[in-house]
Sequence to fold (216 residues):
Amino acid sequence: MKQILINYRKEAHQSTFRQVLSFAREANKLGEVYSQFANEIGLDEPFNSSLLQDLIHYGRKILEVKIDKVVLTKDKPLHKYYRENYYGNLKKVDPFISTVQHWPNGLTASHHIPSKLKEVKNLPWKDGKIDITDIWKDEIKPLFDVYATTPQEIELWNRYKALSEAYNGFQEYANELGVFAPTNFNQLFGLVNQTIVDKVEINPFFFPLQPKNIQL
Fold:
């Protein structure tokens, strides 16, 4: 299907990169603290996108369940001891879980982050960490490209371009002649401070032509 690139949302791209980078730092710190916690209680489950997603949605409950499973592998008379000890270790992880739980529900439209990138599984992972690099920034650029894809969109885009070219050509020719031509849209079409314009009509008040330094 034919499509035409009409815009690149640069500011949204840069904003997304900053927001994801900030989140990645928080998540990776959580990963470090979790790994220490898992090692202390003998939990052989690595920090990955699936675990991070669960921690974001369910908080410490996910780790409480894991603790209880580990406790069940211990001698029954010592269950209370291990449970209390492991839950004490969990308190060290709690503050870091809280720092990531704003993602993605805490984001607003002003953050300009595409839905795809709000899923942690779609972020780049390497060695148990979210790996945000300039290369990744370039890779996500197509998410911020805006295309005209349907015949109607393409036709409207072409007419918009023609409007721009006609206006620029009008101003350029007036400059070549050295004559005054209105550069205010309202003045050019005889509008009075209108912000919504459905239709314009010719308003040739600047004819006959006058030297450019004369304002009619």
User: Anything to note?
Assistant: The first strand starts at residue 4 and ends at 8. The CA atoms of residues 35 and 47 lie 7 Å apart.
